[in-house]
Design goal:
By secondary structure, the protein is mainly alpha-helical. The strands form 2 sheets. A two-stranded antiparallel ribbon has the order 1-2. Helix content is 41%, strand content 4%. The protein folds into 3 domains: 1-64; 69-155, no CATH class; 169-277, no CATH class. Mean pLDDT is 75; it is low at 269-278. Keywords: Signal.
């Protein structure tokens, strides 16, 4: 009797805990179906990401003006073609942006001066850059900024001869004519520059010995002048950096340097004046 009860309970337990073979087959089929759906969704997402990256790259090229450059033209410099082509990232795909290539930065207006740009980019790789500073200034004045990077070395002053005086003596000491590349100017020395009136406020502004430059911003010439010491006093010694847009001959930066203030200057104006007057 006891054996019958135990046997009956075992069969009942088996009946309630076991599942039919057909049910297991259906579950396995459902699992495979779910895996297929997930795989399709992942593939769709990857395709959309790839298409989005291509669209973003196309938009970037259009915004930068690269699409307007016909790189197949024979007069396009080889270095310009190399610069404009996308470059593979050295470490592969970027984990944050998903980018695999990088496009070099160049001003949007550069496309409007493609011939001038080709002349600017026509140089010997890893050699000395051509004496073509006028090309760069013309491109900048046409709105082509930033300019493409070049793989050549700018002409520099020989390191064998020391043409400069130590700071701060160097601020008001005449420098050697050999420190400047004069090929782009009609004047070939500072003596010639001293005799030219570049603009209304720059008469003898390169004469550091007999000129008025070392007194500018220090001594008042009219009741409307703002002197450097008066302006610095407003900051109670807290002014340590400034920005000079016009630059002139650099006298303002020199005066401020004597007072331990660093001046960031823009050089475009002085080059424009030199190119127009020399």
């Amino acid at each position: 009797m006891i054996l019958s009860v135990i046997t009956t309970n075992l069969f009942a337990l088996y009946a309630f805990t076991s599942s039919p073979k057909n049910n297991q087959t259906e579950q396995l089929h459902q699992v495979h179906k779910n895996f297929s759906l997930i795989s399709e969704q992942v593939s769709l997402i990857l395709r959309e990401i790839d298409q989005s990256q291509k669209k973003l790259a196309q938009i970037e090229k259009q915004l930068l003006g690269y699409e307007s450059f016909d790189l197949s033209r024979p007069n396009i410099a080889k270095e310009l073609k190399l610069f404009l082509n996308p470059h593979k990232l050295p470490l592969g795909k970027d984990s944050k942006t998903g980018m695999t290539e990088m496009v070099s930065s160049m001003g949007y207006s550069c496309e409007k001066s493609s011939d001038l740009m080709s002349q600017y980019m026509n140089y010997k790789v890893f050699g000395n850059c051509q004496d073509d500073w006028s090309y760069a200034q013309k491109l900048i004045l046409k709105g082509c900024e930033p300019l493409p990077r070049r793989r050549c070395f700018a002409k520099s002053v020989s390191s064998k001869v020391n043409y400069l005086h130590p700071f701060p003596t160097s601020l008001w000491k005449p420098v050697s004519n050999k420190t400047v590349n004069w090929s782009g100017f009609s004047c070939k020395n500072f003596e010639c520059l001293n005799g030219k009136k570049l603009n209304r406020g720059c008469m003898h502004c390169f004469d550091l010995v007999n000129g008025y430059e070392n007194q500018r911003f220090v001594k008042s010439r009219s009741k409307n002048d703002f002197l450097v010491d008066d302006v610095l006093a407003l900051g109670n010694g807290g002014i340590r950096i400034g920005f000079d847009i016009g630059i002139g001959s650099g006298s303002f930066a020199a005066v401020m340097a004597e007072r331990n203030v660093t001046i960031v200057t823009s050089i475009l104006l002085i080059l424009m004046l030199l190119s127009m007057n020399l």
